[in-house]
Design a protein that fits this description.
It is a single chain. By secondary structure, this protein is of the alpha/beta class. The protein contains ten helices and eight strands. An eight-stranded parallel sheet has the order 2-1-3-8-7-4-5-6, sandwiched between helices. 49% of the residues are buried.
Length: 300
């Protein structure tokens, strides 16, 4: 059965006019339930994680500053969200959801998190709507529990996974692959193990060609026993923060290729949703819902 992390705190209200679309975290599961792709049994509520799992990746002083709301103005501004204790609690639960989803993926081949993909979080700072790096924490948890040795992170959000790259820059047991917009945030990029930068307006055909040439080769070379997939839908041409030119159909084909590859090679995969900032919420919801539809079709 497909297991999906979801908690009501995921769609914590933000001040009116804030550009981050929190409502998508409520609308995506509603859509999946309405159309019959999922039932309530598919969803699980994450619980508060062991802080030691967070501290395996993130600096203790940074974690304490988040918990105590003592970040400097510059540090808080870099995150880009109106900080509160409730928001920090949300981040703990999202990260816990990805840890538990990784455990479920070992049992079922795949598991997902309605939220997550917080790849701009560094070991000692947050930025770009990200405070903890959920997939990085889950990767280290798997290794600590001796459930995986070599991990591949496939980051197909339109923005480079700069925090993920920094966290694993000296760790050969985790291979970081980011395919992202060349002329997009973050403007000072870190060095992943493999970065592929795409020009503005890159469309479906070129995007999928590059991905299909790259991912199977990477898996063959790195021989991972677990994959984390960040399936941001900000590659859409409609995305106001994206700058690429992919269609809904192209984004869906991307997800199908990644998930089918993991399925066929029998490599467990955890999927976190990442970004999506199209002006019309229906475009965001449809693109994210497609990822869950592909998972159900391929695996179950």
């Amino acid at each position: 059965m497909l297991k999906i992390a979801f908690h009501p705190i995921y769609f914590l209200p933000l001040p009116k006019g804030h550009r981050f679309p929190m409502e998508k975290y409520e609308l995506v599961p509603q859509q999946l339930l309405h159309e019959g792709t999922c039932t309530q049994e598919n969803f699980f509520e994450p619980v508060f994680p062991n802080e030691s799992d967070i501290l395996a990746v993130h600096d203790k002083n940074y974690v304490e500053a988040l918990k105590n709301q003592t970040l400097s103005y510059r540090e808080a501004r870099s995150i880009g969200l109106p900080l509160s204790k409730k928001l920090v609690e949300r981040e703990f639960l999202i990260t816990s959801g990805t840890i538990k989803a990784a455990e479920y993926a070992l049992q079922h081949g795949i598991a997902m998190n309605i939220a997550g993909g917080t790849h701009h979080a560094y070991s000692n700072q947050g930025e770009g709507f990200c405070m903890f790096n959920d997939q990085a924490v889950a990767a280290k948890w798997l290794q600590k529990e001796n459930l995986a040795k070599k991990i591949l992170i496939v980051d197909l959000d339109v923005h480079q996974g700069n925090g993920t790259a920094e966290i694993f820059q000296n760790d050969p047991s985790v291979f970081t692959f980011s395919m992202h917009g060349k002329n997009n945030y973050p403007f000072k990029k870190e060095k992943s193990d493999l970065d592929i930068e795409l020009e503005n307006n890159t469309g479906d055909e070129e995007y999928l060609k590059i991905l299909k040439e790259t991912l199977p080769r990477l898996i063959e070379e790195q021989t991972p026993d677990f994959i984390f997939y960040l399936s941001g839908v900000d590659i859409l041409a409609t995305d106001k923060l994206g700058k690429l030119g992919c269609t809904q159909a192209g984004c869906k084909k991307r997800d199908r290729f990644v998930l089918q590859t993991c399925h066929d090679l029998r490599i467990p995969v955890e999927v976190s949703m990442g970004g999506g900032y199209s002006p019309h919420i229906k475009n965001i919801v449809e693109a994210h819902a497609n990822t869950f539809r592909q998972a159900q079709e391929i695996y179950f």
